[in-house]
């Protein structure tokens, strides 16, 4: 009985943490993705994000994807662990690249 209650509480804790992370990520996407605003619901945010990423792939091919992977995985091939989702100090690529993510400028 006790272990079932502990397990249930643990699952509730995980759900709360995940839903908070999803909300924070969707809030960030709402700032970055066209046609989204602060009051856009999560499903619509994900739909517009998918459409926007497909558009970027059509225009730039896989070069942006590869550059992003290189920036966030480096030479090791292992994903670099980021800080908080809202942390503005995200690693960025070669500053000479036209697609570089620069925290000091709006892309």
TrEMBL record:
Q: Which molecular function GO terms apply here?
A: DNA-binding transcription factor activity, RNA polymerase II-specific; protein dimerization activity; RNA polymerase II cis-regulatory region sequence-specific DNA binding
Instruction: Please give the name of this protein.
Output: BHLH domain-containing protein
Q: Where in or outside the cell is it found?
A: Nucleus
InterPro entries referenced in this protein's UniProt entry, alphabetically: bHLH_dom (IPR011598), HLH_DNA-bd_sf (IPR036638), TCFL5/SOLH1/2 (IPR039583)
Q: Is Iron set as a keyword in this record?
A: no
Top-level taxon of origin? Eukaryota
Arranged from A to Z, the UniProt key words for this protein are: Developmental protein, Differentiation, DNA-binding, Nucleus, Signal, Spermatogenesis, Transcription, Transcription regulation
What GO CC annotations are associated with the protein?
Answer: nucleus
For whether the record's keyword set contains RNA-binding, the answer is no
Write the signal peptide boundaries: 1-19
In this chain the BHLH domain maps to 20-57
GO terms in the biological process aspect are:
cell differentiation; spermatogenesis
An example Pfam family from this entry, by short name, is: HLH
Annotated segments matching region Disordered: 84-107
């Amino acid at each position: 009985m006790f272990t079932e209650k502990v397990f249930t509480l643990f699952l509730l804790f995980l759900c709360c943490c995940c839903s908070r992370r999803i909300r924070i990520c969707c809030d960030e996407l709402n700032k970055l993705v066209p046609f989204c605003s602060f009051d856009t619901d999560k499903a619509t945010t994900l739909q517009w994000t998918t459409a926007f990423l497909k558009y970027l792939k059509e225009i730039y091919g896989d070069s942006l994807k590869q550059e992003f992977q290189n920036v966030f995985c480096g030479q090791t091939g292992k994903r670099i662990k980021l800080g908080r989702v809202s942390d503005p100090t995200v690693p960025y690529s070669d500053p000479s690249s036209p697609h570089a993510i620069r925290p000091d400028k709006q892309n």
